[in-house]
């Protein structure tokens, strides 16, 4: 069945302690090419039916209302998964 | 600075209790178009320098070794962020 992917990231202006911790670990391991890391979420919504405009609108609504916490997170992508 | 995105999802054969909980909540809210949900992670690695083959190889190595737990998770994407 088709899948809609929703991606959520912490807002750019907020600290991301989890990302900071990962960035620190990478630095200690010698991967100093990566100067910053941010950690967000990726949701896969399996759609019962076709991925039409209505399904994407539903997914956008669900993403903003439920999957992301609008105070601290932004929805960065809502799109059909490309195989 | 350019960003490499790494996406990690729980392995398909494993239960994902967090995804199950979200799917249940969606059903109760009348969004029964979505029959299943899985929840994974999305990492944004800021690259100090160009995103060349070496940077992507480093990101893939880091993704498999550190960002994903290979026992329960799969790396599903490592690619440069498209703006």
Q: What's the structural blueprint in terms of helices and strands?
A:
The structure is a homodimer of 83-residue chains.
Chain A: E1 3-10, H1 17-28, E2 34-47, H2 53-67, E3 73-80
Antiparallel strand pairs in A: 1-2, 1-3
How would you characterize the overall build of this protein?
Two copies of one chain form a homodimer. Chain A is α+β, with helices and mostly antiparallel strands and 83 residues long. Chain A has one domain (3-80): Phosphoribosylformylglycinamidine synthase subunit PurS (Mth169, Chain: A). Helices cover 33% and strands 36% of the residues of chain A. Chain A contains two helices and three strands, in the order βαβαβ. Chain A has a three-stranded antiparallel sheet. Chains A and B meet through strand 1, helix 1, strand 2 and helix 2 of A and strand 1, helix 1, strand 2 and helix 2 of B. Strand 2 of chain A pairs antiparallel with strand 2 of chain B, so a sheet runs across the interface.
Output the CATH class name of chain A. Alpha Beta
Q: Please tally the helical runs of chain A, counting DSSP H or I stretches of 4 or more residues.
A: 2
Strand content of chain A: 35-45%
Chain pair sharing the greatest interface:
A-B, 35 and 35 residues
Number of structural domains of chain A = 1
Q: Low-confidence runs of chain A (pLDDT<50, min 5 residues)?
A: none
Give the integer mean of the pLDDT values of chain A: 94
Summing up helix and strand content along with how strands pair, one would put the structural category of chain A as alpha+beta
State the helical fraction of chain A: 25-40%
Using the coordinates shown, work out and report the CATH topology of chain A: Mth169, Chain: A
Distance between termini of chain A?
12 Å
User: If classified by CATH, what would the architecture of chain A be?
Assistant: 2-Layer Sandwich
Name the assembly state.
Answer: homodimer
Counting DSSP E segments of at least 2 residues, the number of strands of chain A comes to 3
């Amino acid at each position: 069945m088709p899948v809609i992917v929703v991606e959520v990231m912490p807002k750019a202006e907020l600290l991301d302690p989890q990302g900071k911790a990962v960035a620190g670990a990478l630095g200690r391991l010698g991967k100093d090419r990566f100067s910053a890391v941010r950690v967000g979420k990726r949701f896969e919504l399996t759609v019962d039916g076709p991925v039409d405009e209505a399904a994407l609108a539903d997914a956008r609504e669900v993403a903003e209302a439920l999957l992301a916490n609008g105070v601290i997170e932004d929805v960065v992508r809502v799109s059909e998964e490309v195989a």
